[in-house]
Amino acid sequence: MDTTPKGNRLHIALLGRTNVGKSSFLNMMAGQDIAITSPVAGTTTDVVEKAMELLPLGPILFLDTAGLDDISELASLRLKKTEKIFDRADVAILVTEPDVWGTYEEEVLAEMDKRKVPVLVVINKIDLDQPSETFLRELKTKTSRVVPVSSFDVQKRDAFVDALKRQLLEVAPDDFVQPPSLVGDLLPPGGLAVLVVPIDLQAPKGRLILPQVQTIRDALDNDAAVLIVKERELPATLALLNRLPDVVICDSQAILKVSADVAPAIPLTTFSILFARQKGDLAAAAEGAAQIETLQSGDKVLIAEACSHHPLQDDIGRVKIPRWLKQYVGGDIRTDVSAGRDYPENLREYKLIIHCGGCMLTRREMLSRMQQAREAQVPVTNYGLAISFTQGVARRVLSPFPSALLAYDRKMKEHSSR
Amino acid sequence: MDTTPKGNRLHIALLGRTNVGKSSFLNMMAGQDIAITSPVAGTTTDVVEKAMELLPLGPILFLDTAGLDDISELASLRLKKTEKIFDRADVAILVTEPDVWGTYEEEVLAEMDKRKVPVLVVINKIDLDQPSETFLRELKTKTSRVVPVSSFDVQKRDAFVDALKRQLLEVAPDDFVQPPSLVGDLLPPGGLAVLVVPIDLQAPKGRLILPQVQTIRDALDNDAAVLIVKERELPATLALLNRLPDVVICDSQAILKVSADVAPAIPLTTFSILFARQKGDLAAAAEGAAQIETLQSGDKVLIAEACSHHPLQDDIGRVKIPRWLKQYVGGDIRTDVSAGRDYPENLREYKLIIHCGGCMLTRREMLSRMQQAREAQVPVTNYGLAISFTQGVARRVLSPFPSALLAYDRKMKEHSSR
To answer: Which ranges carry the Hydrogen maturase F dimerization domain (chains A, B) (predicted)?
Structure first.
């Protein structure tokens, strides 16, 4: 059951004059009939709040403002109740239909502009009528965010929703796209995290790499203590403790050795998974890792690097992961490497995308890349999860994250029942 | 007893033709008669190695090459034995006397230049004869490092030695001026350091300040583990351990609270002291802290900041330390703040210099600043030690460093016996 408090949800004002199909649009977004949809003008007569989980964006709350479009209603735009909805919105979706644009729409743009709230313009009902060139040209001068949809076209529904999700992701305010806790929520106050760092510390002399520092800081910020130790000293150091630590975190590449050194009762995960959760959608990445189970000789896998300059990771993405994949599948897996901002044109040819940690990406950018993969219907996972999967410890490293583990188990069950 | 291995000592070739006073120069440096000095030419007939501790520079080894100055000896410069001394030298001191310069000196400069070994030219016997303007002008075209001394002038001896020390510090090779271990030498392999960090972590969101990171890294590099905890969780976290940690390190400003939370059997020090040792001369800084004991109402103390932009430390140097000094002395202490590369002109008016941590200085620069203070005969300590002293825990925070503690105790005894 989703218990996200209202305040943490992205508030989306759903605006549009009567009968442009706001309620059916809402149904399309929700993937089910939740509003009373009817072709009779003005059926939706009051404000409807509808909470949903719009992955990879997260928890949102639609504020359906009920067709306020005639003169009297335009006046009422400034009425307290309506203003309140305008004021509550983080983002507005203005629904219209081909070649329909007037005072109402202009008013909405102006009100939202005044509040610096971004507006997506959705042109609904494109199955009935295509918008004219003139209309589109005119619209382009007013806003760059236009998404043509048809909320009644069941076949294209997913594509429409995906396109909208990407636009929403781009305009959502920073604090909504802000990362969740790195490790703090795995630790009770006074808790203890053990960080296992590689023997050949990969950082410049006298330093630690940023992910390690960030993890330490996050634990301290959550009133927990952190014990840092190299792989070699781990068993002796765990023996110094008179109780089990709350979580052990290690480098993906050491997971096999470390998982043998850490009692099964101790939650264990990797830095890579902490960051996959913070930066992207861990449940989706867990499902993506399960996709490895279905790979067959001859399949193509894309190794996606967000930037073209991280030589240290080279041998992970270019050598180790390809080798482990082949070993796991027991056949030939073709791995291509794509570096940089865009996926290759032939993205759909791949059975799986294994993404780098995206240390240079914001959460918004990483979620956007995951969403692009989803649009192309290619599962996506990341280096760390792929490594843990091929080493047979995926369930172990996901165990501190129940919802991701559930998604993973469900996907694995799907694959095995095929 | 000093057990510094030869290899770790700065090797200084002592060169000069017969009777310029190399041996008496060596005596002056050592502060005692260790060589057989004699005005008879050629008394010193073989290579003499003399090890000494030249603070703040550290352990050095003089290679006295025995007056090789006539034609036959010049030829022998290239003989294996002599070449070997040239090759062993990190620095050369070429002793001459006023207006004496010729083929021998030119040859030495050339040989050393070939080896990229810096040369200090010492003009000895200036009590007998002043070097001529022409000589000095000529010399200036050959080298910028000229130190006039008189090794027989007992009164000026200290000033000469100080001037030479500063020149040696400037030309000593980087690896000699390299810092000692930060914390690693306090930890046995498999050891455990506890780092206590402030509740209001002073670092930018998601980070730790560099001294904390450097300390963690140094401990890991020495095969030890590190437990990091905020002040508030320290007692509960120490209770998680089934043995005492090898050292506890905290922020100077929390030393009073932390020293109460940490059993006396556990070695305790501050980040500030670790860095004072790494960056400068801890024993000298400990003696400097003891100087606070002698301060009286009306005395002037200089707060020296290495750079003019560290606002975070402002209230430590400008507010807290002055207040604590006044409280400790029980009278009015005038504190002036000097920021930047140079001490003020009136340095000798101060009874004590309390230096910032010098995070922007190299060890060479910090040692040079301490040496400058020594030349002005003003004791120098640092923020961290001054704080610990005024809080009555100076001995406790120095206890992990026996030689600094000894220097401190000796100085305190001196003060109390006055």
So the answer is: 182-280
